[in-house]
Request: fold
Amino acid sequence: MILKNKRIHRRTMLKGAGVSLALPFLDIMSPLQSAAASEAGPLAGSKRVAFIYTPNGYWQPDFVPQETGTNWALPKSLKPLEPVRSDFSIVTGLDRKFVPGTSTHAQCSSCWLSSAPPGETLDGGFPTDITVDQILARKLGAETMLPSLELSCVDFNDNKETRYYESISWYGPGFAANTENDPQSVFRRLFGKPDPRTASVLDAVLGEASALRGQLGYGDRQKLDEYMASVRATEKRIELSKKAMARRSEPPIPEPKGIPEKRGDYIKLMADLMLLAFQLDLTRVATLVVDPERWATPRMYHDVFDKPLEHHRLTHSKDPVSKQQLAKIDAFHVEQFAYLIERLKQTRNAVGGSLFEETTLVMGSGISDGNRHDFNNLQVLMSGGGIKRGEHFKYEGQRPLADLWLTLLHAHGVKHERFADSAAPVSEILS
Amino acid sequence: MILSMKRELICIATRDFRSVIPDNHQVVRLAALFLVGFALLGPFEPSDAVEPSGAGLFSERIRPLMTEYCLDCHEFDSSYDDAQALTKRELWKKAYDMLDAEMMPPPKQTYQPSLAERASLLSALEEYLTLPDPILGRVNPGKPIVSRLNRLQYNNTVRDLFGLDHDVFMLPDRLPTRRHNYYAEEGGLPDSMIINIREFGSKYTVLLPMSGLPGENRVAHGFNNRGDAMNVSPLQLEKYVSIAGELVNHPSLPLESPRFRGLLGQDIDAYCGPGKSGRGGVLVDSASMFAAKDNVPASAPGNDFSLSAFRRKLHFARPQGRAALFDLPEPFQKAELFDSGGLIAVKYGLEQQKRFTINPSLGITVAPYAGAKSTANGLCLMNAHATEKYFDLVIRADANDPREEIRSLGLCVLDLKGDSGHVTVTVTLNDHQRISRTANIREGSGNTFFGFKIPPGSSAVNVTVDGAAYGGKFVALGDIAAVTGPSKTGAPSLRDPWNVKAYTQLGWKDQSPRLRLRHFLSDAFRRQATTEEVNRFHQIYLDAEARGESGADAMRITIQSVLSSPQFLFRIETDPADEMPVRALNDFEVANRLSYFLWASMPDRALFDTANRGRLNQPAELEAQVKRMMRDPKIRELCETFAVQWLRLDQIYATQPDRDVFKAFYRDRLEEDTLHDDMILEAVLLFETILVEDRSILDLIDADYSWLNANLLDIYELKGLNKGLLAETPVQLRKSVKVTNRSNYNLWHRVALPDKTRGGVVTMGGPLTLTSTPLRTSPIKRGNWLLETIYNRPPPEPKMAFVLKDEEGEQASEPKTLRERFEMHRRDDACYTCHSRIDPLGFALEAFDPIGRLREKDNGVPVDASGTWNGKDYRTPVEFKAALMERPEDFVRGFIEHLLSYALGRKLEYYDMATVNDIQQKLEARGYRFSELIFEIVKSDPFRNTGTH
Reply:
């Protein structure tokens, strides 16, 4: 006997009684349901985290402070941080294990936030794994419109490098989070009105995906699982953006028109958008790739140099002029970080508190000395709430970078015993 | 390279670059501890599925030699028997590659196998690697395709699905050439061509100029169509959903796509005529007389008929309802039209039921006849932007019935005051044939009539007006008219992949929404849609209607869902009914593989029909389809995508030679006009020539001709040829040569080269430039490029930064050439293994400067471009290329591997060696002809079969 089946909307089912879905769920993108408030870590006040990535390491002599502790002189490249001297710390001397077999630069960016140990090369030789921002997003992003926001200022049009060079945020092995590099698209994603029809489209395609999934072999399902997880994340975003829309009548700033011409303006605009998303609680975790690794394409640093330069090439050039230029690029990137700190300090959160105190800011690069591709003695700038500020924490010997990430996880209440090759948290950096 | 990995681990472990070649075995044993997961120490599960063949191959011919020469550094369990070792063949493939490239044992090591031993080991390994899979009982064809459409494939698929004549959105990977002619269907390229180039990154006609999708990065050593490398993330999914929404709601789509109109159940009048605002079209009555005011004294040379004969044709056709005459009446609001995708519909026919439509491309405006004598009452059409004297008009005999054909076409090009020059009008037919006519319109010679008779069985679908060689800033069209008639075969006269049956039986409009959807779904999913799928999508339509949407809007939402669905966005090969470990692909799957390989798009109607008849599993039919597809202009994707990515030409725009040192690269004072385009085109044209003329693929590295324009003749010091070439150029072409700005650089010649310094991609300006830095050459980049591109044997990534000694400031008493400095670096044992391969290739090209010019000195010191390759010494580029050609089979193998990997959309594995060897043997026997390579790839086992697990 064949029963004529009336199609039941999945959404209708959801409304029903909190039924658990028979559909497969890809856990890497679904926020932990009980998150946020329940089991807060020491950084209870700080609910937002941003990671800013700059490529190709730093010119060491002008970047690493000589002294440690609280009394240290700002090296040349850190001078732009002078106005916020007491609002940040620098952590130096942490290491990551390089995994032979793939390009050095590809691992700088793709493994910076995962510190994936050499044994875990699940992605065809690449040790990519879920990154610390995505773990935090599962914890902190349960109630926000976007679990996390992935931004980049990579506007190269040539197809020069693989995605490893420009992806710092990974949902899991081999599964990179796409980044958004167009301020206008970011704006629309954050503040745009959801098209009411989109919901029915998403509903329809999710049905198609689950019908299709049943026909696939186990090994072939992964691509479709990514698709389905993406549909669900989008559905959730739309639901939450409707709520956010209801709370506000106008977008907070006018819509940007494409990519600003000047490099500094571009980075600052992306930082502003990130800040707005934090302030309006549209997301609590963000990554910003200022530039990709290697990518041998000259780029213009407006108001710094009058002609385009190639950052990566400079790291391998030995003449003093190149070293000066390298230091200037570092300082230029540090200046953007200083801007972000200052803006955060000026910004109030929804209840009038300081957004700065609620945010952890991290900036770094996947190598220290760009010329030698040194994965040891990395530099990380830290700022925001819950961080001991104004200090230089220097680690000697082999101390994994993963320790720092583990510390951040613990601070936000993610009770992992280990993260990648971590040994122990570096709790002394917390206030 | 897993085998080489261990050595790198040693470097890391000891942190000493110099101890890479270990001098005592203890270090090796110690380092082996790091190798858990790499070395072959794991437990072995015997398989008794198939009696292991190749008995004795491993134990007698491979193991003894490998134990002798490899075991010192590379751990493997030397007690493996033949069957055990058979399951570890991915490792033996790596050993094979290292041995074959003579990178292992390390060249500096004194203990080397004899030539005979090396040859014996290689042949034994080759035999071993091509043995059937012990579990499958046959050679493994690889996994099924589960791959998202990449950006280019998405664009092309949507374009063909709706029958658009242009891209959906702007693709940064499109070459900035403005060509209609790919000569694919003619089987040969002429000796001279005009190729106009738009500025890189400038706008061109697309449906959604402000939208797009994120592009895919290429895969290391591969192409950007690799399924395993393409993710879907929430951001990407949102883009798919929103771009599908923009598409279905775009006001121009119904104007441009009869198929879309049909899906919505609407005819053209719903979008034209009075009261239609925005980007709708105009609906006008057919004029009564062609060029009523006369004033058309001139006739284009080669016209099929005179103006008066055309008028007679129209006169006789009118009572039969077959004459469509367009003349824009005054007054007319030009804002109504022509932003992009505006449309003019002319009412004609016995009951005024037919709609002759003209769709102008971006940048056309309506203007009064100022500066010209008017041919009729109304207004004329001309380019909206000064100097953009090039535009397309898409024409349809009857927008409501695709079976109506255009039989004759006439139009007038106006004689504008103060201007003279040549105007070319090209009519494109639905079978891609073109008819072109050029008239010299001198000031005062009067308006010129162009008349085209369309060959029986074809219809005109496009008119291109090219006024590049016309003097002024504008080119203008007066009347346009057509004599039409029904198709004799009853088949639609359009090339869109529509369902013929649906058309001929009912016509879209009168079909039920469910039936319309059924046909559309099968096309969108590129196979027969299942009844369940049709039901589900029909339900989406019904739900939307139930929510109060109009029929058209409900259909829009449904189509948006289709375009966002996994069946559309992914290419999926799945056959749940089949339990066999390997199965033959079904006809639709083969059709998809074919079309995405050759066209980077969906199958067309003919391919669908062949698949539907179950004929694609016959090699003869497969070959016939491939032949047909290679004659279709869409084959350009193979040039523009495969060839461009293979040669890394997509990176050339990012290469910026220093403006002060390399002035020759920047042609004009403003430095806006560079050699980037010229260099890309030279390589693409060579590839295209080989493909279209079915030449030997050896031409790719060893041709005695090249495509050059004045710029490249200059760079190659062949300027002397220019005059002779110009003299041989057909007069017609010479007149289209652009004289402003880029003087005659749009004229390209197939030049017979005086010697073999040039010819083939290795010594072309493009590759030589894109492998250089702004101020100097990079022999390493060039060597790497050659190893990867020409041989498909890229060296492993360097594991440590190098330091060029004299740059460290140690001492630089006398200037050293780059070569001398690199040779110091190469003395380092750790570097030598790879650089013994990279450097001879890279330094051979030191004879060329960073923009590809021949040079004798570098840094004031004579360059040394000598070396040895394939056992032959060389001192000059000519000798170097001769040394490359000592072993053409190495290039052929690399090229087969590149193209096979692109065709399969996956990385090649050890088990593909059997296929590659097989194709290579067949090619050798057939003169390496390009078509043979394509045929062999599509007939190959992995192309037509798939593993199921």
